[in-house]
C-alpha cells in the first residue's frame, strides 16, 4: 500500500518509495522529468478522488442519521434536520347490495344500499337478506322497473277511460218504495251501485272504492269512485219511486 503525504508535493522517492523509484530508475535522464510530472498528476487526481469519497461518505452518514449541518454536503445537497413519514390511511371496504326483505334501521326490500364488507359478509349474506349488485342484476332490475312502469300506465289509462264512460252515460236509476213525502223504505248502498254498474256496463267494481252519500229520499245524488290514485270518477244516481 502506498502511503500518501498530503502536505508534501515533491515528486521524489520519499513520495513514491517503491513505484516511483523503480519507474524512475528504468527511465532515461530525459524521460525522468516527464515521468515524475505524470506521477505527480496521477497521485493528485487519486488524492482528490479519495477526499471526495470521504466527503460524500460523511454526507451520506449524516443523511442516514438525520444530522446534517450547514455546509456538510456538497453541490447543494438537501439540508434538513428531520424527515416526515406519511402513513397510508386504511381504506374501508364497501359493498353495494340490494335488500331481499325489509330490515329495520337498514332499508326496505328492493332498496340498493352501500354497506361495509364485514356487515354483508358476516350477517346479510349468511342470513340471505341481501345480494351483491352485479351488472346482470342491474339489467334485470331495469327491465323489471320498465315492466312495472308500463303496467302502471296501462292501469291508469283504463281508469281514465272508465271515468269517461261514467261521466257520459248519464244517471243510474234506482227504484225504491216511497212512504210519506219523498222518504224511501230502506236506503241505497254501495252494493246496490255495484250491482247496477255490473248489470248496465258489465264491469266489476270494488265497493270499497265507492264514496256514497246517505240516501233516504228520492232525488238525484252524486257518488265518487276512486278508480285510480290519480283518477276519480263521478257517478250520478237517480232514486225514484216505483
UniProtKB/TrEMBL annotation:
Residues 107-134 form the Ribosomal protein L9 domain. The keyword Transit peptide applies. It comes from the Eukaryota. Signal peptide: none annotated. SUPFAM superfamilies: L9 N-domain-like (SSF55658), Ribosomal protein L9 C-domain (SSF55653). It is found in: Plastid, Chloroplast. GO terms for cellular component: chloroplast; ribonucleoprotein complex; ribosome. GO terms for biological process: translation. Residues 138-165 form a coiled coil. Keywords: Chloroplast, Coiled coil, Plastid, Ribonucleoprotein, Ribosomal protein, RNA-binding, rRNA-binding, Transit peptide. Belongs to the bacterial ribosomal protein bL9 family. This is Large ribosomal subunit protein bL9c. The lineage of its organism: Eukaryota, Viridiplantae, Streptophyta, Embryophyta, Tracheophyta.
Amino acid at each position: 500500500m502506498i502511503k500518501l503525504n498530503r502536505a508534501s508535493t515533491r515528486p521524489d522517492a520519499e513520495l513514491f518509495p517503491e513505484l516511483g523509484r523503480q519507474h524512475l530508475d528504468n527511465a532515461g535522464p530525459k524521460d525522468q522529468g516527464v515521468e515524475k510530472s505524470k506521477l505527480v498528476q496521477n497521485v493528485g487526481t487519486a488524492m482528490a478522488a479519495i477526499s471526495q469519497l470521504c466527503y460524500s461518505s460523511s454526507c451520506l452518514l449524516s443523511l442516514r442519521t438525520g444530522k446534517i449541518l450547514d455546509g456538510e454536503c456538497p453541490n447543494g445537497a438537501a439540508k434538513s434536520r428531520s424527515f416526515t413519514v406519511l402513513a397510508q390511511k386504511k381504506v374501508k371496504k364497501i359493498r353495494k347490495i340490494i335488500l331481499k326483505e325489509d330490515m329495520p334501521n337498514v332499508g326496505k326490500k328492493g332498496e340498493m344500499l352501500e354497506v361495509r364488507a364485514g356487515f354483508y359478509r358476516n350477517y346479510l349474506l349468511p342470513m340471505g337478506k341481501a345480494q351483491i349488485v352485479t351488472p346482470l342484476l342491474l339489467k334485470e332490475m331495469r327491465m323489471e322497473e320498465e315492466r312495472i312502469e308500463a303496467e302502471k300506465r296501462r292501469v291508469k289509462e283504463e281508469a281514465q277511460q272508465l271515468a269517461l264512460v261514467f261521466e257520459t252515460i248519464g244517471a243510474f236509476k234506482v227504484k225504491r218504495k216511497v212512504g210519506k213525502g219523498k222518504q224511501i223504505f230502506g236506503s241505497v248502498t254501495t252494493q246496490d251501485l255495484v250491482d247496477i254498474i255490473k248489470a248496465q256496463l258489465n264491469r266489476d267494481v270494488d265497493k270499497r272504492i265507492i264514496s256514497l252519500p246517505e240516501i233516504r229520499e228520492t232525488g238525484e245524488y252524486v257518488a265518487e269512485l276512486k278508480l285510480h290514485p290519480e283518477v276519480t270518477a263521478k257517478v250520478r244516481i237517480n232514486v225514484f219511486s216505483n
